[in-house]
Amino acid sequence: MAVTLKDVAELAGVSTSAVSRTFTAGASVSEQMRAKVQSAAQELGYRPNALASSLTTGRTKLIGLVSNNFHNPIFLEVFDRFTRGLQDRGLRPLIVNLTDETDPRHSVELLLQYSVDAVIVASSTLPPTFANAFRRADLPVVHTFGRPSSTPQVDVVGIDNVACGALAGRTLRARGYSHVGFLGGPEDATSTQDRLYGFLSELDGSPGVRVTHSFARAYSFDAGREEMRRLIPEGLAEAYFCGDDVLSIGAMAALRGAGLDVPGDVGLIGLNDMEMARWEGIDLTTIQQPIGEIIERSIDRVIYLLDTPDAPPDVCIRSCVLVERGTLRPALR
Amino acid sequence: MAVTLKDVAELAGVSTSAVSRTFTAGASVSEQMRAKVQSAAQELGYRPNALASSLTTGRTKLIGLVSNNFHNPIFLEVFDRFTRGLQDRGLRPLIVNLTDETDPRHSVELLLQYSVDAVIVASSTLPPTFANAFRRADLPVVHTFGRPSSTPQVDVVGIDNVACGALAGRTLRARGYSHVGFLGGPEDATSTQDRLYGFLSELDGSPGVRVTHSFARAYSFDAGREEMRRLIPEGLAEAYFCGDDVLSIGAMAALRGAGLDVPGDVGLIGLNDMEMARWEGIDLTTIQQPIGEIIERSIDRVIYLLDTPDAPPDVCIRSCVLVERGTLRPALR
DNA sequence: GCGCGCAATGCAACCGGTTGCAAAGGCTGG
DNA sequence: CCAGCCTTTGCAACCGGTTGCATTGCGCGC
After folding, report:
1. Does residue B102 carry a pLDDT above 80?
2. What pLDDT is recorded for position B1?
3. Chain B within 8 Å of A94 (Cβ-Cβ)?
4. What is the helix (H) or strand (E) element at residue B121, kind and residue range?
């Protein structure tokens, strides 16, 4: 069995309170006492039980990390940064992998049972209602990659997808493409809807630019490839703004597989700037989402909410920039 | 504040024991009692506190999941399967992201503080001593993707890397390549060493087959690309067995970037068969590791160890098969 | 009608810590 | 030398559950 507070107290010949205080920052303990306790603790190899102490302190330092993006390579980066960022700050991520089968409500109950201190929902495809459910259970929650709102129910950290759509539209227009396409992610995702809206609004009224759009069933390579293969016989646009990078890479594979050149015959622009976008052989022109900043901010915000549970929901939008690589033709001049 | 057992007991007008038993499978409770308690619990929205109960039961249902592979796309699949598999069985993964900076001992202490019931170490690059550290702390541990041993200190589930190396060697020989190369992962990883050993042993004494080898600094795209670029001016082998798929893809990018054709000028064979290996445009011939089976087995084994902590360490080896795609020339005939 | 066995229930101790409160001790200043 | 204050320490209650044990009550057979 594990070494307990009591064992240490006995060995040191002091009360359990003294031992507890030795391991509690800012408690009133004399130097001798601390030394005595620590040597006893050392000798026994004592480690305080974080879960037991959570009972009285009300803090578990456990943070629920909920996502449904376990198939998108970008998630590797997201996940790496979240786990590192949390553990660097003494917090532990408790992962919930949302699959199609799992009932969303179930994840709320689950995280409540483990008394997580807060929840991070990391997904651009989950509806706002999902994050709200945690809020209703009185859990601080941050929706990372969520849709910005002027009347937010929960904290949101993310990007302005409408602006990204517009940026993509502007970029394609500047390249002189006269027929551009939007090859979106799942139609019901808010990120898809917003990007399309921005894209269309930007190009609406641009003389001589025709815009078409369609949707892939998911943010995935296969979905991008399938949708592009479907489009080829129907007649292609000159360039596509794809839902995200992995979708773009799928679309690129379909195009090249059909003997078409990118960017010679068809241009592509993605969104995310995941690591793979830089790979030689892919070299995708894309809109960069500042993942690192978004995640840092999400963690900082979650920590703030721990001490300020009643803080009004805040929305933090980071701006995106174009990363020029090799899948669009050069700008007109 | 959250609803507690006591609140429910009060509302239902029964003892706290009765409420506790209602939520404990196999406890002695009458039907009326259960109904009464459940309706009270329902009314208050009561959820038992898993952490509090762990104090007396000694079970947290938390499983430490430790890895250092957060940059390899294969880990997406591994991670997805582990988190799903565990949660489907009512267990919660507690992630530890091992970075170069973090002291390995720290992760032991951390998981002990959270009283995890067991630990899964998912990595082919961590040394066996790492997993042993958990064992010494009396935690059941399974080393997934670990090196098989005839005198294991901990449970291991994985593949026979020596056999994989041999399979790769046989495959290349059957294709009639007369100069083959091993482009391994990090030299200090046991998986790299074993694959090289199997590869060399298999080809040793094959008349007319010359073998060279070198190592990339990591299992990553960039490392594979770098190493292949370094090899190009030095003179290439006709085909390479690469440390894993992502390394192969990096090597492929370097070759194609240098104007060489795969498999026309240089053949490639990888290991893992990650999702990306199937992508059009990659179409990598590779040795398939049965990830799904390995992970299922790891989880089953961990669950077994929960009830049988003193079970002698067991080694489970799954066999690998060649997946023929488009990066090797056809077999001789 | 009585004794017995069994199922259902409550009491209270306990899991491993934390913390308010009061007592003890040391130090200060007068 | 004493009063008073502050620091240090221990006691005991408590966090939210679980469980061994004793008690109660019921149904049954004779």
Report:
1. no
2. 65
3. yes
4. strand B118-122
Backbone angles phi, psi at A161, to 5 degrees: -65, -30
* Cβ of residue A105 closer than 8 Å to a chain B Cβ: no
Q: Cis peptide before B140, with omega less than 30 degrees from 0? A: no
Using H for helix, E for strand and C for coil, what is the string for B140-188? CEEEECCCCCCCCCCEEEEECHHHHHHHHHHHHHHCCCCEEEEEECCCC
| Whole-number distance in Å between A174 CA and D8 C1' | 74
Among candidates B54, B79, B87 on the partner chain, residue whose Cβ is nearest the Cβ of A51: B54
**A115 contact to strand C (CB, 7 A limit):** no
Measured CA to CA, the distance from residue B57 to residue A195 in angstroms comes to: 51
Bridge partner residues of A94 (DSSP): A64, B94
B34 CA – D24 C1', rounded, Å: 19
Q: Work out if B113's Cβ lies within 7 angstroms of strand C.
A: no
Best to test chain B binding among A42, A49, A94, A97 (most B CBs inside 10 Å)? A97
* Measured distance CA(A71)–CA(B79) in Å, rounded: 10
Q: How confident is the model at residue A330 (pLDDT cuts 50, 70, 90)?
A: confident
**Mean pLDDT confidence for A286-294:** 97
Which residue from A83, A113, A225 is facing B50, i.e. has the nearest CB? A113
β-partners of residue B270 are: B286
What average pLDDT does this structure show over B227-243? 96
B64 to chain A: nearest residue by CA?
A94
User: Is B95 close to A93, i.e. CB distance below 8 A?
Assistant: yes
| pLDDT per position as a tens digit, B41-57 | 999 999 999 999 999 99
The answer to whether A50 faces chain B, any CB pair under 8 Å, is yes
- How far is residue B313's CA from residue B137's CA, in Å, rounded to a whole number? 15
Amino acid A205: pLDDT: 86
For residue B17, what is the DSSP state? H
Sign of CA dihedral B50, B52, B58, B63: positive
Neighboring chain B residues of A80 at a CB cutoff of 8 Å: 70-71, 97
Residue A14: the pLDDT is: 92
Residue range A116-140, pLDDT digits in tens: 999 999 999 999 999 999 999 999 9
Structure tokens at B216: 């990339």
Residues B239-255, mean pLDDT to the nearest whole number = 97
Q: Please name the helix (run of DSSP H) or strand (run of DSSP E) that holds residue A113, with its range, or none.
A: helix A104-113
